[in-house]
Amino acid sequence: MEFQKTALILIGYQNDYFSPNGILYGVVEESSKVTNVISNTVHLLECLTHTPTLIVTTPIFFTSNYEELIEPIGILKTIKESNAFQMGTPGSEAIEALHSFQNRILEVPGKRGFNAFINTNLDEILKQHKIADVVIAGAVTSICIDSTGRSAHEKGYHVTILSDCTSARTVFEQEFYCNSIFPLYADVMTHTELFCCLELTMTA
């Protein structure tokens, strides 16, 4: 892997998922505590911020009446019924832990569902930067992470999913996807193992 050809895609790092006051905090709380996803992600960003690695975030936003969702089911129905990720609300904002990196992270708007490539220009941006390797971190493991990872693979990117920088709905789900599902189309590793692949010297 080369820094210049690698992109880190951050998914779901918003208050409604990761803040204790977030509407959907309970969805990922158990798994996040086990994987230490926030502290690991911060360490990841601290080490990558001074490299040529492309770092993008793909937040999900909805209008107040959720006109973007037509007869939603599953978690999208839950999002609508609970009024999560509304534009302009604290819950839709990036978590505080990422604020210090905001000048280094490129925000790619438009995400309205599971796949970060749908309704966004993410693929175009990756191609503009001649990206070959896509590294994925965030939430939710079994939904947006899996959907985006599969799509990236189908588009021809080499996919890596960070097991200690992703959160599922349960610990079992996290382990099942990292051990049995993701390896079908991606490399699965910790963020420190990624540093080894990039030959990056770690910092504390």
TrEMBL record:
GO MF assignments: hydrolase activity
Isochorismatase-like domain boundaries: 6-192
Keywords: Hydrolase
Top-rank taxon, per record: Bacteria
UniProt key word Cell membrane: no
Keyword Translocase attached: no
Transmembrane segments: none
Pfam families (alphabetical): Isochorismatase (PF00857)
Protein name from the UniProt record: Cysteine hydrolase family protein
Native source organism of the sequence: Dendronalium phyllosphericum CENA369
Organism taxonomic ancestry: Bacteria, Bacillati, Cyanobacteriota, Cyanophyceae, Nostocales
